[in-house]
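User: tokens in, sequence out, please.
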């Protein structure tokens, strides 16, 4: 599924979020630096993320250029922000905002959350130990498999608890954030990306392209 959302605030209205749940039960944010994390960039360029994530997971990440329509991911997609310092990179700023007041775990990483409507916590899985696109694909496929299993087995509101157990079983280290208003975090993230002349894009399984969250 791919789409073009013209107003993020409109997307985050309760009625629209309820419709979004028809396509995704869990949401992930993939945080990486375009120059500092080449394994993740190579993985994204390979185009397997929609198939790897499966039908119930929406994955969002920052794109280093404005994207008014659905666009393919190419090498040029990550050039404009390549020289931005790690301390100021929009994706890293977004993760630091989740851990405000606490030590920030190693970046890059994957943020996993299951509720966009209210204050909620998130799980963070660091990907800092992965050296190749193959390593990234292998780790993410395991995480997405565990997410899919958790959504099928856990009771409402307990998905992240169930997922945490699954991740530990597969020796995947992760951390939990404090409860935060995820919808406000997404809006702030959008503003940070746009302030740097970028965008936030999303992908859902069965898509041939990447949909734009605007």
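Assistant: Sequence out:
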């Amino acid at each position: 599924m791919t789409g073009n959302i013209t107003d993020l605030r409109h997307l985050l209205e309760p009625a629209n979020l309820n419709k979004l749940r028809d396509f995704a039960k869990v949401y992930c944010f993939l945080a990486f630096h375009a120059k500092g994390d080449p394994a993740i960039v190579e993985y994204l360029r390979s185009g397997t993320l929609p198939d790897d994530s499966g039908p119930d997971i929406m994955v969002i990440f920052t794109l280093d250029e404005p994207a008014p329509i659905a666009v393919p991911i190419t090498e040029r997609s990550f050039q404009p922000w390549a020289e931005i310092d790690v301390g100021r990179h929009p994706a890293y700023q977004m993760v630091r905002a989740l851990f405000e007041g606490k030590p920030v775990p190693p970046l890059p990483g994957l943020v996993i959350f299951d509720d966009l409507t209210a204050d909620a916590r998130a799980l963070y899985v660091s990907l800092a130990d992965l050296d190749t696109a193959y390593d990234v694909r292998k780790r993410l496929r395991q995480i997405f498999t565990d997410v899919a299993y958790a959504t099928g087995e856990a009771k409402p509101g307990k998905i992240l608890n169930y997922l945490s157990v699954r991740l530990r079983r597969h020796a995947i280290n992760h951390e939990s954030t404090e409860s935060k208003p995820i919808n406000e975090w997404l809006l702030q993230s959008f503003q940070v990306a746009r302030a740097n002349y970028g965008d936030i894009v999303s992908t859902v399984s069965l898509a041939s392209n990447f949909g734009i969250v605007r």
